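Late entry, evening session. Most of the bench is empty. Finally got around to the prediction I had been postponing all week. Sequence below, unchanged from the version circulated by S.P.
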Amino acid sequence: MNFRKDINGLRAVAVVAVVLFHFNASWMPGGFAGVDVFFVISGFLMTGIIFKGLENNKFSLLQFYIARANRIIPALALLCFVLLLCGWLVLLPYEYEKLAKHVTGSIGFISNILYWKESGYFDVSSHEKWLLHTWSLSVEWQFYIIYPALLLILSKFISLANIRRSLLLLTLIGFITCIFVTYSSPRTSYFLLHTRAWEMMLGGLAFLYPVTLSKTQSRLIEILGIALVIYAYVFFTEKTPWPGFYALVPVMGTYLVLLSQRGNSIVTSNIVSQKLGAWSYSIYLWHWPLVVAIYYFSLPESFTFILLGLSVFLGFLSHRYVEKVNFTRTFPTTLSYLKAKPIWMAMVLGLSGSFIYFKEGFINLAPKDYRYVTENAKPSPYRDKCHLHQYASPESACAYFHEDNVQWATLADSHSIEIAYALATKLKKDNIGLKHFSFSGCVPSYSETDSFSPCARWYNETVNYILNDTKIQNVVFIHRYSSQLVGGSALAYPEKSNGEITADTKRKTNNIDTVILALAASKSNVYVFYPVPELPIDINKLIGENYRNNLPFQNIVGTTRDWYETRNEYIIKHFDNANYPSNVKLIKPQEALCDSISCFAIKDNVPLYFDDDHPSVLGAEKLVTMMFPE
């Protein structure tokens, strides 16, 4: 395919948007849409390569895969190698273990699946993942594997003209699927192939159905296309449901630019756009680890501009000395394709990452006391299996250990997961089972409609399920009130307006009372937890600071008791003054995790958390003990 300056320049527009968004979201609030632009371009180019080969009866699937590997793997492998090398020098064992896992996922092109399972793209924890941005490369590679194989198979049975028509239908189906999944499961729609493939296929349609335009028409269509792309960059934000229907804006914008075929555009054909476009892949690879470095090392704001420039410089070096290396594309026999150097690069790095992950970041080389607190600052082994991020019927909830004798239930958000496990472990000795109901970030929503919160339907059905199950006679109720009533981790109190409690906060508080009273009316005991004290930073970072400074781990203060009580003043006062029935037992975690002055991250060598706000299994055991006073 002939080189097109407009496509190369469009890459520059996309990578600039993504880089600016990642370094400072306020600079380009919708810059994440640059990835969608890349997807459309990729679909256009790949469809062109495949169809030209099919038309000439010269398309080789293996040669196609090797060409893609030559293009993508070497620069990615270099990045992964550098990160593993630097990680050995500066990262803590648990961080190195996580990096190794992500290196393996990235070089194996399944990182989108790993990140889909871990958390959302816009979550705070995203800045702890050095290779998060490789999710898009994994999506593209998965598309490269399936798409040409599908077209090749179809070409054996139907004409190329009918394949073109089929792609029209598949693109429409993919877009509709994307819209539906975006609203039913946002994380799924963001990371996985089946909700992104339509963008690449639409790029393919731009190749398969070109239009003849006059110079004036071409210019107008290009202007409209670029305007749509820029509109998405400027006016969309992290809160925009994505990709979904809104993704049509930058995707269609890119599609129009591809149709316009303007090789002399002032926007895409100028020398700056051409250089940045040529370096765009490597710039994309190197910029995100530098963004993470700012957060990891708590660098001052001035470093943003330095590392932004470094991203471009490293991109230039990677393009010149890695991307431009001409690796062999054709081999005489099928087995000889195994000699392709990029495949060996991927295998070596994948095996290295797997070995480091298997060795838990070489934690065996760390001091014994560090190993103990790190290994025990862990979540419940059932966290991933039993905790919901999207709606699921309460009938499918996890039952721990004795499913035929479930007498207990936990109802809450993620703050209950480890408590549920610790409680179930205790009950197991008496052959009593527990059912665990938790939904990520769930606001108490009993009697509310679906528009009130993402978990409203689940919440109503779950409460009614518990009420109707006569075997369940004990219910544990706990939520992260600081997030649901106070507004997150900062010391801010949006529940107050001009000194008064807002109607929204009163409504949420009433929901808490409503569900507690409903449960108390039909159950033997309802255990209501006050807020769990939270830490200003992740416990692993506190452990890391002590490790690097050669300090003991016996007792590490997380925050002050005053910070906890000030932060949770509203809900603490509410529970203190609540007039609940006698079978409602109020449990105060601060009495187990704090003294009169401090709240601890580690107490007597016991890590009480596994991050900044969720209790560890050992911390949860201390909380469960409070439910059964001697």
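Two things to note before I forget:
The first strand starts at residue 398 and ends at 400.
The two ends are 79 Å apart (CA to CA).
Will write this up properly tomorrow.
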